[in-house]
Amino acid sequence: MLSPLFKVKEYGIIDSNPYGIEVVYSLPKQDSEGRTKRAKLLFEKGCNIPLVKSLSFEGRKEVLDIQLKYSDKETNLPDGSPILLGNYRITPPPHEHETFTLVIKIKLDQNLIAFVNSAELVEDYIVQEKIPIVNTNKKVTNIEF
């Protein structure tokens, strides 16, 4: 307000997510319990939006199937609403080194749409380079002041 008669306090608006969203991804082998898929709650109900979270997979060479869906624990979805938000298949690119990490970034935007924002392969390695030694034993003569 520009009027000196009225004073309005500063305020801010923070949007939140009304539904929990989980990610289901495929495992390269069966785990100790015989499962081939693992589910994880990624965006909790009431979290601030927009928000980006990342998943890291160490040494994952196999194709990765990712499924985003509303949490099974959510019962307050409107009738007839689909639970599945999206299916994604990520094929890791060829890598040059033994140790690498596949990093998947998932974004929940301001419109409450969850999607895979990026997938990247991060390789950590050490390169040893030989640095030539420069001879600095030159004699300086005939210095005048």
Q: How many β-strand runs?
A: 7
The number of helical elements comes to 0
Strand content: 35-45%
> How are the strands of the biggest sheet laid out side by side?
2-1-4-5
By CATH, the superfamily comes out as Substrate Binding Domain Of DNAk, Chain A, domain 1
- As for the CATH topology, it is Substrate Binding Domain Of DNAk, Chain A, domain 1
Describe the model.
The chain has strands at residues 21-26, 37-43, 51-58, 64-70, 84-90, 100-108, 114-123. It is mainly β and 145 residues long. The relative contact order is 0.20. The model has no long low-confidence stretch (mean pLDDT 85).
Offer a concise description of the structure.
With 145 residues, this protein is an all-beta fold.
Secondary-structure blueprint:
Layout: E1 21-26, E2 37-43, E3 51-58, E4 64-70, E5 84-90, E6 100-108, E7 114-123
List its salient traits.
single chain, 145 residues, mainly beta, Substrate Binding Domain Of DNAk, Chain A, domain 1, 4-stranded antiparallel beta sheet, 3-stranded antiparallel beta sheet, 7 strands
